[in-house]
Fold these 2 entries.
Entry 1:
Amino acid sequence: MSEAQYLTGRILLAMPGMGDPNFDHAVIPIYVHEDAGAFGVGIGALREGISFHDVLHELDIEPGVAPDCEVHHGGPVEPGRGFVLHSADWRDESTLDGGPLGALSSSAAVLRAIAGGTGPGRWLLALGYAGWGEGQLDEEMHRHGWYAADGREAILFDTPWHARWTATWQAEGVDPSLLVGQTGTA
């Protein structure tokens, strides 16, 4: 893996005091990190007032056997665009391999498969994404805005959304209550 792809398959955690309220306690699995930029989908906050069945109805997909569940706030870019973070047991032409994060799909086909009972075994839906231009995320990493944690499917699928930031830090062996919001230089 080249240095430019180091963050693919990892989970970004916003550092305390980052300074951008859009990313307060953000938990963002990264699916693309290359020279041209980076792309991830937030899973640490919910979209208020919208459910999975609402999204299906908006797309004229009958919910079928799909449970109704929350929809995550994936990020500030294209907030109406949907992404399904899911286990690697389902894929189509839109699917990105997420390594330890499972997979990510953005087609309506995955929603139809979930509704029909033939989709991935584990999944969650997010609207919007977080994106960085060439060198932007690398710069933010150097300014101590983000921490790159190991990618763990259990954080995505077994941890409630409101506990993911703390649980990811704890999985890294860090007590997040001891983190400070400022760094200095010597």
Entry 2:
Amino acid sequence: MNAEKNDDNLVLKAECITKRFGGLVAVDKLNINVYDGQICALIGPNGSGKTTAINLITGIYNVDEGIIEFLGQPIQGLMPHSISWMGIARTFQNIRILGSQTVFENALLGKGYGNGGASIIHTVLNSASYRREVVASTKEVDEVLDFVGLSDLSNEKACNLPYGKQRILEIARALITKPKLLLLDEPAAGLNSQEIQDLTELVKKINKQGISILLIEHRMEVVGKLADWVFVINHGSKIAEGTFDVIKKNPVVIEAYLGRGGR
């Protein structure tokens, strides 16, 4: 889904964000804009600072310099759960699911179960408001699992899922939060060709629901199929941005990947 680029539909604005770990500058004056309806990709050699940038956006790390705005509101310095409640969801490079729990239970974690409208007293007393919350939460999880194609596996333990389905489950858990912006950290890692195709179709389907997407991805065929706009970073700094067709011919980008510009 392509988007017009203007301030009125700017979803994420990261301006001159910098993060240092001792003497190492992991992210250096990085600028990223994501607009409503866009699928953007953040690419670069291993160790270029991609995941650190995502961690800054989601509040896992605090920026040392720069600003981050989401829907026009500053979010740097906020806790990760506060940023999530505002409408930013993410997945992780390494899958984080509870293998001993069911698919439904894993997805329900994204709902922030117990942090809803019902108070602790209502929960203990099994009040009407608590029961309504349970019904509503169950319905939401069922709908999301159906949307991502996991409804028939709802009662299956997550550890029994094929690896590709586990990736999808993590995305489902993120979608439970009803995000406006979804950050995907290497979602195609470890997937076979059919699983990559399924993932690509799901990301397009999510985007058609009005959710903007920023993804880190090493598989260029996935970036080429999905991304409206690509940011390339190396050694923590942005070295190029543009459409995939332009980026893949950029000699600076080619040198970063194939020369000595790796992490």
